[in-house]
Design a protein that fits this description.
Layout: H1 9-17, H2 20-32, E1 35-36, H3 37-43, H4 49-61, E2 65-69, E3 77-81, H5 83-101, H6 103-115
Antiparallel strand pairs: 1-3, 2-3
Helix pairs in contact: 2-4
Length: 116
């Protein structure tokens, strides 16, 4: 990631996990541990292959995820969190807990705005 000034700590954190898919990839790796590409694609419901590849490349470039190539045939590549990525996942845990606690309300609000 290129150096740039951040407005606040949240701005810096969101520059790493901005967008839905990177956050969900990060979270699945935190919950399930190291995963192969196909396993991640199944865990992150709704993500396309192209978007998942991009998210993994971005997370790897930001030192959140490490890609381990086992140099085998058929290809065997595994993704896991770095210690830096694990610390970010821990910081995001309260946000996930808040989301679970308020999921019904958030869903109801979202469906109301669609109808308006």
């Amino acid at each position: 990631m290129t150096e740039r000034g951040f407005y606040c700590g949240l701005d810096a954190a969101l520059s790493v996990v901005g967008g839905r898919w990177k956050f969900l990839v990060l979270w699945q790796l935190a919950v399930h541990g190291p995963q192969r590409f196909g396993q991640l694609r199944r865990l992150v419901d709704g993500v396309t292959e192209k978007v998942l590849i991009g998210a993994l490349k971005d997370l790897e470039a930001d030192c959140i995820v490490v890609r381990k190539d086992f140099q085998e045939l058929p290809p065997h590549v595994e993704y896991s969190l770095t210690p830096f990525g694990s610390s970010l996942a821990e910081a995001l845990r309260p946000l996930c807990e808040w989301g679970y606690a308020h999921m019904d309300r958030i869903g109801a609000l979202a469906s109301q705005s669609v109808r308006s």
